[in-house]
Structure formats: C-alpha cells, structure tokens
User: Which sequence fits this backbone?
C-alpha cells in the first residue's frame, strides 16, 4: 500500500488535467483537510507543481524530472524487477550500495538508483561520468540460482535489455560492442558493470550496474570523452523521459531474465547477435597481458568472442576489451 502522499499524487494524476477537490481527496483517503494540505505541501517540496484554487481544489501542473520510487513503480510492467526501489540523490556508486543491500538480503529484483554518482565505476576500476539528473545510474540486485561459471553471460543479457529499450522508447539505434558496451554511431551511450559474489557452486548475489547517458548535452561531457561518448539527447536533439526509459529497460530485463531461466542462454545470444556491432568486423582485442588483431567471427555459446586471426586460426576470447577498426 503506497503512503498517503503517494495516494494523494495518484488521485491528482488520475484527475489530470482537471482539478480534484479537497473533499474528494479527504473522502477517498479517509483523512482531514489539514492532512491533505500537508501532503500537498510535501509533494510541492519534492518538486511537483500543484495548483490550489479555493472551491475548485488541486490540480497537477507538472511532475519533476526525478527518479522517485513512486514514479518508477507506477505503471511499471514487471513482477519483481524494480518493484522495490532504493532511491538516492547522490551516491558514491549504485553498485557499491547495491552490494551492501544484497549482503543484507533485500528482495531479488531490487533497484538502487541515484540522481548522481560521485564515484561511478566502469570495468577495471575506470571512472564513469554520472552527472546529476541527466542519466540513468542504477543497479539491479539478483540472486540467480546458477553455478557461478554460468553467470558471466548475464552481463550480455543486460546489454540486450538496454539496447532494446533504447531503440523502442528513446528512438536511438543502439548496438552492442562485445561483450556489453552500448554504442550509437561508434560512440558509447551506456556502460554495464556486472559484479558477482559467489562461493564454489552457488551465486550469493549478482549486481547488474548500468550507466546510461540520457539528457547530457555534448558540451557537458568532460573533454577526454567528448568524442567517444554520446547520449540520447545528443543523438535525437531532444530531452527524453528518464522514467519511461527506465521502466521499459526494467521490463526488458525481466523478460530476458525469465526467458534465460526457462530456456537457457541461447535466445539471449541470438538477440545479442542481432544487436551486435562487433561481429563481422575487423577488431583489435586487448587483455591485461596481450592483444590480437583479427576478424570478429562469432560468439560462442558461453558468450566468449571467436576471433579469426590473420593466419586463419581461431582465438577464443573470454574477457577483454574490443576496439573496432575501420574495415
Ligand atoms: P572501453 O569503453 O574502452 O571499451 P570499458 O568497456 O572497459 O572500456 P567501462 O569500464 O565500461 O569501459 O567504462 C569506463 C570508460 O568509459 C572510461 O574509461 C571512459 O573512457 C568512458 N566513460 C566514462 N564515463 C562515460 C560516460 N558517461 N559515457 C560514455 N563513456 C564514459
């Protein structure tokens, strides 16, 4: 049951664009007029613009551009992913907080979201630029019942969900660079960092962290990534609803996660291949120690990249970083 403030908001949203009288709200929620006024004031301080006119009542004028839990869960088409939201204005990193929450055993599918990350992280400890209010910086906590050896492809599942949501809801033709960066016109729009806590044969928890650039203007990116990063705003020329994009992404995530549980990794991989911008291209692959140049031929059933080397032999790359080379 949502709190009274959320219920007042629900009534205003249902009544939109008409006024809803104070009396109707009092009766619907079984509270006094003073209580209603208090909740209206609380909503206003949270950024909701609400008009109050004597004898007419209250009218919602606008909703703030915030990732409030009520905004995310209202109309969210999932059964568990994102149904429990841990919302923060500012966090060091959503993955870090998600790890703490997972350690306390919060519900599977819980979402940790922040308007800003002070120390957002990419792979190998690299930093992730996550400015206030203009991206989706979030982590989803999952407890997959799977041997830890079979968990790594889940990061590719996250990429599939994000690419499909970006295409459908934001109208941006995102493609996936192996294993899980999302690119638009060869520029990065979304990074994914999946972290696993596991024992010998079981996963304790898995954190799917994502950083998706939504309403970041070109000039806002730091100079060192201005040429390599992009955002929905940069690609479409207009601001998009972060809530709508997140809701679609969470629904996609749940769809593919449930499918993976039922049918295994093959359907995810098929979809990943359709969205890939790596396969069928000449690439350079780096690991900590080595690097190879070759042709990105295919991905294996476990998600590793099959690289055809200039001599014709194949190299199976389990983890590494790919740079796309011009054909
Ligand atoms: P690469 O992007 O070179 O393949 P990677 O996949 O390991 O590396 P991540 O660890 O996912 O990259 O992301 C970190 C890198 O992404 C940073 O080193 C920086 O270059 C870049 N970056 C940081 N913030 C953003 C952002 N908001 N949008 C796009 N790129 C970013």
Assistant:
């Amino acid at each position: 049951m949502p709190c009274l403030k959320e219920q007042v908001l629900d009534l205003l949203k249902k009544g939109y664009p008409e006024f809803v009288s104070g009396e109707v709200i009092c009766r619907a929620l079984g509270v006094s007029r003073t209580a209603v006024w208090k909740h209206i004031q609380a909503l206003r301080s949270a950024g909701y613009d609400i008009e109050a006119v004597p004898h007419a009542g209250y009218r919602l004028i606008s909703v703030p551009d915030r990732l409030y839990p009520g905004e995310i869960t209202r109309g969210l088409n999932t059964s568990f992913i994102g149904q429990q939201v841990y919302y923060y204005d500012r966090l060091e990193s959503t993955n870090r907080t998600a790890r703490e929450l997972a350690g306390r055993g919060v519900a599977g599918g819980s979402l940790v979201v922040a308007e800003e990350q002070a120390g957002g992280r990419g792979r190998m400890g690299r930093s992730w630029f996550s400015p206030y209010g203009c991206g989706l910086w979030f982590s989803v906590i999952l407890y997959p019942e799977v041997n830890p050896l079979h968990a790594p492809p889940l990061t590719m599942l996250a990429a599939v969900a994000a690419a499909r949501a970006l295409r459908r809801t934001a109208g941006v033709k995102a493609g996936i660079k192996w294993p899980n960066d999302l690119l638009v016109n060869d520029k990065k729009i979304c990074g994914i960092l999946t972290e696993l806590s596991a024992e010998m044969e079981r996963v304790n928890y898995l954190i799917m962290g994502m950083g998706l650039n939504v309403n970041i203007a070109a000039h806002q990116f730091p100079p060192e990534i201005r040429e390599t990063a992009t955002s929905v705003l940069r690609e479409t020329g207009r601001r998009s609803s972060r809530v709508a994009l997140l809701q679609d992404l969470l629904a996609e995530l749940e769809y593919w996660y449930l499918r993976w549980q039922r049918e295994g990794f093959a359907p995810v991989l098929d979809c990943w291949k359709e969205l890939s911008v790596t396969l069928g291209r000449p690439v350079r692959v780096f690991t900590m120690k080595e690097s190879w140049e070759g042709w990105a031929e295919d991905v294996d059933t476990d998600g590793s990249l099959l690289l055809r080397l200039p001599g014709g032999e194949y190299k199976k790359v389990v983890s590494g970083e790919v740079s796309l080379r011009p054909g």
